Amino acid sequence: MGSERIVVVHPTWQYMSISLTTEPAHDLDELYFRNAISIALRDAFGIIGMSTPIDVLTFDLDTQHAVIRVPSEYLVQVRSALSLLNKVDGTRTCRFHVHQASSHLMSLACGMHGMAHR
């Protein structure tokens, strides 16, 4: 009875480390941050894009940084929508920055140790 290896060929989830900056600078709460993600998906892909299941796992109010979870099949769609967003509320210029993306949550935790994003 040897040891068994389990290999995950197609991971179910992808994790993204992202932050949002606005001009003029404004500290956003988690609800506003989630709304900005929804707006990005709607602007890029319409109502159907807005229905993409995304979970905000962590949100740091001080650094405006979050870790989100996205189904693997939607990673490219979500990443491109976040990259294309340039306005929120019709007046406020903003930009999402994707720091890292990985199929393993722990790899994001290792990469974020001691980092502050502004």
From TrEMBL:
The keyword S-adenosyl-L-methionine does not apply. GO terms for cellular component: multimeric ribonuclease P complex; nucleolus. Pfam families: Pop8 (PF20976). SUPFAM superfamilies: Rnp2-like. It comes from the Eukaryota. GO terms for molecular function: ribonuclease P RNA binding. One of its GO terms (biological process) is tRNA 5'-leader removal. Residues 13-83 form the Ribonucleases P/MRP subunit Pop8-like domain. InterPro entries: Pop8-like_dom, Rnp2-like_sf. Keywords: tRNA processing. PANTHER family: RIBONUCLEASE P PROTEIN SUBUNIT P14 (PTHR15441). This is Ribonucleases P/MRP subunit Pop8-like domain-containing protein. It comes from Synchytrium endobioticum.
